[in-house]
Amino acid sequence: MSYAKAGELLRLALDLSARHSGMTLSEIDQRWGGGTEAARRRTQRILSELQALFPDAYEDRTEPEGKTVWLRRGRIVDLSAIGARDVAALERSVTSARTAGDPGDVERLEKVLAVVRMLLPDKMRSRVETDIEAMLQSYHLAARPGPRPLQDRAVIEPIGDALLAMKQVGFDYRGTGGVKRQVVHPYGLITGHRTYLVALTAKRREGEPSLWRLDRMANVEMMSARSHVPEGFSLVDHAKRAFGVFQNKDEYGEVVWRFLPDVAANARGFRFHPDQTIEENPDGSLTVRFHAAGHLEMAWFLYQWGDKVEVVEPAALRALVEDHQRTDFPAAP
Questions:
Q1: 3-state SS assignment for residue 327
Q2: Cis before residue 314, ω within 30 degrees of 0?
Q3: What global pTM score does this model have?
Q4: What's the rounded Cα separation, in Å, for the pair 58 and 78?
Q5: How far is residue 16 from each of residues 4, 27, 117, 214, measured CA to CA in Å?
Q6: Among 100, 222, 88, which Cα is nearest to 154's?
Q7: Which of 113, 140, 252, 300 gives 293 a disulfide partner, CB atoms 3.0 to 4.6 angstroms apart?
Q8: Digit-coded pLDDT (tens) for 321-331
Q9: What is the distance between the alpha carbons of residues 106 and 95, in angstroms, rounded to a whole number?
């Protein structure tokens, strides 16, 4: 679960528990843009997740004016199901966000963490605090090697606000042709070694969305005009079309890699793509198959395997890594 979604769930849970008569679906819809089909679908998803997290605290009832969703405060505020492992996981999430250079998520996670700690019953707080400290000392979050762009709050926060309000986003974008003002329909954010906004230019109403790098944006603002997201668009499915975060639709297709027997065990421990299949070969090698785009990111990843991996498909990727597979790496990933 993303940091932002965890915060949304907690804020909604607290709002519901604070209202004796509950909240209607229409009232909850207002959080996500209000009145639209997309807002209603998001309300249904968030309530389903809330019910899964607090199955004994959630009820809905039908009244003359419509359906009301409510939480029994006695079950949710005492957080009886929250233990040291859960709070320690939040603590580590704060550290992870700080390591990733995302001050906005650090601030929001610290607020969520403070609320959770505040709501812990007095009788269990001292015991849990001791356990949390012991657990934190048992975990160390290693910084991911390699450079990565820092998150600029002046860029990412207006985009987040626009996504929630279902509004268009305007920004100055530094591309190959210089800086140009862009106005887009935002679909969502994809984060990896870079963060991209998936969006369609406001002049269009249909077609494939483009990827816009956040580190190339400036003067970002939420516009007053409503955004349009196609019915049935799934950010998860869209992201799966890439090996990493960037995708070129012309590169999309079947990818087949064969890892040699002496590194097959290492490769077996990786999840290269959410929809991958693996095949154990008679010679001890391992074949991995999936469909994705992003040949350059694949080449970056494959380099660390040296000459212990063979690119069977596609031919364009095989040509890209040819003559760049070293034989002298002392270990496999």
A1: coil
A2: yes
A3: 0.64
A4: 14
A5: 18, 11, 19, 35
A6: 222
A7: 252
A8: 999 999 999 98
A9: 8
